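Worked Example 4.2. Consider the chain below.
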Amino acid sequence: MTIEAIIEEKLMSAFSPLHLDVINESHQHNVAPGSESHFKVIIVSKEFEGERLIKRHRAVNTILATELSEHIHALALHTHTEKEWHDYYEENTPLSPKCLGGSKKSA
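Applying the procedure from the previous section yields the following structure tokens:
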């Protein structure tokens, strides 16, 4: 099973999201072809109602703790309530921040 599939499965099980995108952005970074090290997750869940952004991110990070410690170099999280998603992001997928290195090879 791929890391992407594991992320999807774990987040679906934990949050029953109304919307979930798991996007492998590894190809945008200086990693080997086929790598699964950089991801963007866009998740919309009723579980996030009334929760601050930091608590939402911590909840996702807890579910993905093994993958974060063993496989994932960067994880861009976009965690939204249903209202936030409809009000702000439904038409515009947010961009991930630029990677500042970590796996870049020295010249």
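The CA atoms of residues 10 and 46 lie 16 Å apart. The chain has a mean pLDDT of 87. Compare this with Example 4.1 before moving on.
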